[in-house]
Amino acid sequence: MQKIKDGKASDPLRVILVTGMSGAGRSTAMKVLEDHGFEAIDNLPLDLLDIVIGEKPRRRPLAIGIDIRSRNFSAPPLIEHIAILNKRPELDVALIFLDCSVDALERRFKETRRRHPLAEDRPLKDGILAERRLVAPLQARANFVIDSSDTTSADFRHNLTSLLGLEESGIMTLQVMSFSYRFGVPREADLMFDVRFLRNPHYDPDLRSLTGRDKAVADYVAEDPGYDDFVNNLQNLLLPLLPRYQQEGKNYLTIAIGCTGGRHRSVALTEWLGKKLESIWPQIIIAHRDVDKEPDRYK
User: Fold this and answer.
1) β 13-20/62-65 pair status
2) Can you give the residue ranges of every domain in the chain?
């Protein structure tokens, strides 16, 4: 969901450079900026910065993640580069530094069992302290510093969007999507439901060429003895969850419903659920990932 409208050709291109301590939330920050309409590019080598920004005008703002894992990373050249970019009137460049306490970083790396980039052959704390020395000049130069030590994901999101003056509608966008298990599960799904237990219209010659968007197919699926219990339980499960996801700062939630071919049962249930949610939730997207794929593949 894009919150920042395309700028006019005369508006400066907004470029947000995101850096800081490993484990302090750079990936989360990049996702938040992407949700607000930025074109997000992470781990960009410094020598590609000019190429990515380019000489030609862009309409979408840029969010660029750079840290010690980026190729040829060095704080002084990056600071010099930012100073050069700031001299270009067609650009509006800002540097965000994400900080975090040593104790919190140690806890995060241990919980996720990730290896710190500078601690391959040394204790974790030594790697964190070595990184802090390397990035200290960037923290001193940053336009904005966000400390994520004791913040929830919702607080972090709020702090970032507030500092940057980004519009927050406060409404999470729901996407209800049908899919075929034959083509793989959608990686963007937050919640996934399998409806292959319902009666399959594929085996009715009069319905095979139709889809779940057709009333005849939807009625056929709804006649399954287990249909009413399933849809009632699904509704009772989802309705209390949606406001809780929004309270946690989630900007986009995808509910995926799958069947074998992605044309009949999952489409019918997705249409039903999408229309149910439209009456209580202001931002709904109904999508059918595989409905138009070749039916012969489902035999």
Assistant:
1) parallel
2) 13-164, 173-298
Q: Any known ligand binding at 20?
A: yes
Structure confidence by residue, pLDDT tens digits, 52-64: 887 565 678 899 9
Using DSSP, state whether 123 is helix, strand or coil. coil
Phi, psi for residue 190 in degrees, rounded to 5: -95, -40
Three-class DSSP category at 94: strand
Model confidence at 280: pLDDT above 80: yes
* Overall fold of domain 13-164: Rossmann fold (3.40.50)
Q: How far is residue 268's CA from residue 270's CA, in Å, rounded to a whole number?
A: 5
Residue 297, marked binder: no
Instruction: Tell me if 193 sits within 8 A of 235, measured CB to CB.
Output: no
Q: Has 27 been labeled as part of a binding site?
A: yes
24 is in an annotated binding site: yes
The annotation status of 196 as a binding-site residue, yes or no, is: no
Q: How far apart are CA 32 and CA 230, in angstroms?
A: 34
Known binder of ligand: residue 21?
yes
Three-state DSSP class for 46?
helix
pLDDT in tens, 10-33: 578 899 999 999 889 999 999 889
CB 242 within 8 A of CB 234: no
Q: Is 169 annotated as a binding-site member?
A: no
Q: Residues of 99-113 as b/e, b for ≥16 C-beta within 10 angstroms?
A: bbeeebbbebbeeee
Q: Is 67 annotated as a binding residue?
A: yes
Residue 192, marked binder? no
